[in-house]
Amino acid sequence: MRNSQDLWARSVSRRRSFRQMAAFLAGSPLLRAQQDPFRDHSRVPALNELLNAFDFEAVAYARLPRAAYDYTAYGADSEFTLRRNREAFDWVELTSKKPADASSVRTATEILGTKMNFPIFVSPSSGHGALHADGEMATHKGTTAASNTPYIVSNASSFPFEKVAAAATGPVWFQLYPRQNIDEDRELLERVQVAGAKGIVVTIDQQISTAPYERTQHDRNLGGRGGPQTATGVRRPPPRGPYGLTDTRLWYEWKFFEQIRPFVKVPMLAKGILTGDDARKCLDHGCDGVYVSNHGGRSMDYGPATLEVLPEIVDAVHGRAPILFDSGIRRGTDILKALALGASAICLGRVPRWGLGAYGPEGVQRVVEIMQAELVQAMAQAGRTALDSIDRNLVRTDFP
């Protein structure tokens, strides 16, 4: 009798059978709901295991929704300029003197009144809320923790400038997309200056903007065929202008800087400069500095890499104003090459976004610190222990 009871107790019940069958079906590779071709479900590495900026991209890719990653990654049209921005660094070789002790390297500088421990800013980029719940506030905390790195807050940030500026103590600048109503520009610029903006960067390198980008159009999961969409998945209203152009582009001219100059009390720069002639016009129309950028390859496809045009712009400015530089920087040696070709400081765009999407503010801090450490190491290897010792004699260029 006891053996029969034992067999019954060990037998498979109906409930257990259903549970096992459900588990089998849920794990079946034939069940499409379980398929995720875009994600590597392996272990997320600890923050201290990441060795360079590229490592952060892989983690961000694994952790972020596809739309948020693509928004960070894409370039315009065929993404030729996006690729060229990176390739251009391969066309510049570093020469060296006798290597120096890294402890002797000095990287502190000052750009238009903003004191910096390294010649590194974090570029303006929009929609950090799609990468982390605290968005730009988390980014600002990370940049402040990374040796007080200055952060240029985007006009299209997920949170108001006032909240971002109050989130940490590091220096903040503000990036403006011009509006046709000058009173709206004035109200916004006066507001951010009261909130602590130490500089104003006016973006002029996205005169034409068509949405969505091809990368998102190719991903049917993002609604690319159904109309433009933001990184957070919220659809934008369709553009009212012809040819898919938004009505916020293709109107502003150089006189705009003269119009806003009376109510900009802090240094002002134009972002998106790619020619020496435009660099001279920046200064002629009231700008205090020049920002060399092609919007990370997101503005106009088949344009030049920013590193290719940097020497021409430096020659045109002829020391009259500082020159900021971005697009394509991933290594400390990239920073050193840009400085050698005449940049006063560089700006990191995608790199801190990878850090934010992967690990939050600590990720921003860590990835910027890696770039800082790589710059120090590159300067030591090149035998340049101070920023003012970095010049064109440090590089050999072979631009096509």
Spatial arrangement of strands, main beta sheet: 4-11-10-9-8-7-6-5
Q: Could you tell me the mean pLDDT?
A: 87
- Principal-axis shape equals globular
Q: Any low-confidence stretches, pLDDT <50, length ≥5?
A: 223-236
The amount of beta strand, in percent, is 5-15%
The helix/strand order is: HHHHHEEEEHEHEHEHHEHEHEHEHHE
Please estimate the helix content. Answer: 25-40%
Structural Rg: 25 Å
Q: Describe it for me?
A:
It is built from 15 helices and twelve strands. It is α/β, with parallel strands linked by helices and 400 residues long. It folds into two domains: 32 residues, no CATH class; 349 residues, Aldolase class I (TIM Barrel). The strands form three sheets. The chain has an eight-stranded parallel beta sheet with strand order 4-11-10-9-8-7-6-5. Helix 8 links the parallel strand 6 and strand 7. Helix 14 packs across helix 15.
